[in-house]
Amino acid sequence: MKKQLPLISGIAAITVSFFVFVIPFLFIIFMAFKDRRQAASRDFSWPEGFHLWENLVEVVTTRNWMMITAFVNSSILTVVSVTLLVVLAAMVGFVLARRDAKWNGPIEFLILAGLMIPPAVVPTIWLLQGLKLFGTLHGMILIEVAYNLPFSIILYRAFIATIPRELDEAAIIDGARPLDVFFRVILPLLWPVTVTNIVVQSVGIFNDFTNPLYYLPGANNATVQLTLYNFQSQFNTAYNLLFTNILLITIPPLLVFLFFNRQIVAGMTAGAVKG
């Protein structure tokens, strides 16, 4: 019985995953293939005709090609935010892991507070308005960096703590300056955790809905998640177009997870194994 327990647990996990992840995704695909009349029933029926292409064309061209604008905005927001997150979090994690200063404790407390305390939306809007950054893409980039920085710092600090200090000392003896030690010695060793951070943060920022809704108003500033509003209303929702839109914005994160799944697991476990 004990030998069969792992097999039973594996089958149960696969079954639960199938019902939780696969069936909803199949439902999205079926709805994207239907026309407006059949999609209005919102049932798990086989499409009577294959209308995916015409649904895609209408989704992309709606509101003066808003979907294209949204993909460009989301791509810029994701790439710039993740780049800043990687550099800033790695540098802060390096300092916290290498310097035993009296202010490490308060700083780590503030980092943990950033993970636990929910953001205050209205004061943040006032601050952005005062800085004339409200409703701008670069203001939204700063918001994403600020909200996601604590998790990235904790990730890097834990990994850097496993790297021997002798590497830093050897580089300093060879004449390396502090920035040289970080960028030429430490940063290349952070590749496993960097890949993990890039993938996790990219998917999170690309799929972010609430923050752009609060801080990035305007059709020209729309991100991919906000385009879902194009096809739903209180009285008349085009479910075929809505689910086609969902399918379009689901594919990029799905591909990222499929291609970088091993790197994510390796980065998450590398620090733990060394520690």
UniProtKB/TrEMBL annotation:
Similarity-based family: Belongs to the binding-protein-dependent transport system permease family.
Domain (ABC transmembrane type-1) spans 71-260
Under Gene3D superfamilies, the record lists:
MetI-like
Q: Topology with regard to the membrane?
A: Multi-pass membrane protein
List locations, semicolon-separated.
Cell membrane
Question: Alphabetically, which GO biological process terms does the record hold?
Answer: transmembrane transport
Source species of the chain: Devosia elaeis
Q: Which PANTHER family does the entry mention?
A: ABC TRANSPORTER PERMEASE PROTEIN MG189-RELATED, ABC TRANSPORTER PERMEASE PROTEIN MG189-RELATED-RELATED
Membrane-spanning segments: 7-33, 76-97, 109-128, 140-160, 181-206, 238-260
Q: What is this protein called?
A: ABC transporter
Q: Name one GO cellular component term.
A: plasma membrane
Q: Which UniProt keywords apply?
A: Cell membrane, Membrane, Transmembrane, Transmembrane helix, Transport
**UniProt superkingdom:** Bacteria
Q: Does Transmembrane helix show up as a keyword for this record?
A: yes
